[in-house]
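REQUEST FORM: STRUCTURE PREDICTION
Request ID: SP-0412
Submitted by: Lab K.M.
Chain count: 1
Length (residues): 111
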Amino acid sequence: MAHSRLAPVALLLSLVAIQARADLTLSNLTVDEVVPGEGGIYLRLLPAPPACSGGSYRTTHAFIPSSAARFDELYALAANAQALGKLVTITYTDRGDCTHHSTTLFLSDLQ
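STATUS: Completed
RESULT:
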């Protein structure tokens, strides 16, 4: 009986942990490289985000999927920031250590 009471607590804690990894923000980054890839674009950011301290995926750290509602706008913003050396702020979900395409930062916004 005690085990069944712990299940909702464990579920709640796991949901809190997942939420803690979503919608993070980093400022004062430069877009060093914009790389078109399968299903979207990858960005190399400098300095490398702390979540990517273990490495990068093909020298990139973040991904914007082509299915994103604002994909064209975000692509243009990234390319413009790269060309002008402009500092950006990103909003992202931390998906891991950035060493595989599925563990790069998942960008939801770039300003």
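NOTES: Helices lie at 2-20, 71-84.
Reviewed by: T.R.
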